[in-house]
Amino acid sequence: MYHTEGIVTRISSQVTNGNTTYYMIIGDDNTKLYVASNSLSDELAITREGDNVKVSYIDDSNRTVSISDFDNLDFSQVKSEDQVRKDDQIAENGGISENDTNTIIEVNPEDNEAEWNSLTDEKKAKLLENND
What we know:
By secondary structure, this protein is α+β, with helices and mostly antiparallel strands. Strand 1 and strand 2 form a beta hairpin. 11% of the residues are buried.
């Protein structure tokens, strides 16, 4: 694994089957064409010529090298207060974010079955209809 830092002197992208691949030259070294998939970093889409970047790559003695880590050093996104609070909450909860989609609800199957069995067929049908 190699690392380099420098100014992007040329950058271009190519879309194939819905996937974007970025090609760039860093510094004055025209012996390497750095290549990265858009899934590697959101910062690739906003990187332009003149930006200072830091990359890690695997050099297999080919002129085209695959970037494994990318950081646009000229771009740093500031977190909103809401995002900072959310990040703090996740850290406090051991990496778990609490929201409507992953809230833990304790249930007792026996109680739930008893409640279900106490409902009329009409109420059961209505509940099932609302869940579709």
